[in-house]
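Dear all,

This email documents one entry for the complex benchmark we are building for the journal club exercise. For each entry we list the sequence lines for every component of the assembly. Then comes the predicted three-dimensional structure of the complex as a token string, followed by one or two observations. Please use this as the template for your own entries, and keep the labels exactly as they appear.
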Amino acid sequence: MHAEEKFTDATWPASPETATLEGKNKFLGFWLFLGGETVLFASLFATYLALKDKVPDSSHKLAKDIFELPLTFVATMLLLTSSLTSVYAMYHMKNNHFQKMQAWLLITVLLGAAFLGLEVYEFNHYVHEFKHTFTSSAFGSAFYTLVGFHGAHVAVGLAWILTLMLRNAKRGLNLYNAPKFYVASLYWHFIDVVWVFIFTVVYLMGMVG
Amino acid sequence: MANDQSNSANPNVNLKYRRKKNAEEMKHQVITFTLMIFFTLLAFLAVAYDGFSHWFIVPFILLLAAVQVAFQLYYFMHMKHRGHNTIALFMYSGALVGAITILTFITITWI
């Protein structure tokens, strides 16, 4: 079984992402990277929790004054749904249905782009409405670093998935690119894992006070 | 793992079985997703509703987040499947270091 081999539905491996040595290594290496990302985000969460509502004077807004439930809710639904659509994409990858996989990946990308658009709107709103900026307070710095780092991950994820889709559009599925698609979907799920903590710890706990 | 498909003499019979197995797993994923949406709604409602005390809401929504993350990791990212022991080691090590960092920053720092 080599990477560029042509497969039929019947001969396509059950777990194409780990069918080659390269795939196995990618899979293991990528999870190690995710373990590291966990520590990175945990340290940003720790910083945020330590600096939450730490502002120089009372003219600055606090978490409970700036966050709004509806916006966070819509963003959360977009990202959660995009996680399911990428599961659908991997389902079709395992069934050797390249076009269906591409279609679900495109939906994932669109949902992710909508999430990112909302985040840009949100940041812009905070800066102009509340003068809550990266340099206005320790709270502002910690907030934008944590949420911005997540947003940057979303942007990288979108660029990554789009690049894979375009690069392999004419090639179709094989054991060379199956691990690439699989690892990109893992990354996308990890972005959602981080968002679950962000909407809970930053937004919901912020609104509770 | 690589040759899971070759345990039958006739690959097409095996294909039918695999397709069915994949479809079944996809059904479980959709159920997982529905539960995740439900937990998210619960968390948002708990915050939106005025009657609950802060001491109830915070642990409640943190618990919901932990369950959701477990769903994401074990179902969507397939950690419940065989061959994920080393990966579990990576993630739990990361989570342990992360938890200690957070504990430190919210208890023994003063700003």
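Observations: Chain A has a mean pLDDT of 95. Helices of chain A lie at 21-51, 63-66, 69-94, 98-130, 138-167, 178-208.
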